[in-house]
What does this fold into?
Amino acid sequence: MTPDSIMGLAQSSIYLTILVLAPVLGVALAVGLTISIFQAITQIQEQTLAFAPKIIAVFVSLLFFGPWMLTHLVDYTRNILSNLTRYIG
It folds into this structure.
């Protein structure tokens, strides 16, 4: 393997990681920001009010985006395994 192919493989894996995690992190960010604004407006400083909705939103987004995420991960793994002789040799 050449250094260029190693860098290309590392770049594609980092890109896939960002692509797969972006929807879940976006949902967590949006829910966290909404809860923070609500807490600032009402001056309620309850920790569970900030924590519990984010956990629920992340689980729901995993249920919703899970098949899409799994498809991308399986395709990437299939690509790596089908080209394994090129990477080893």
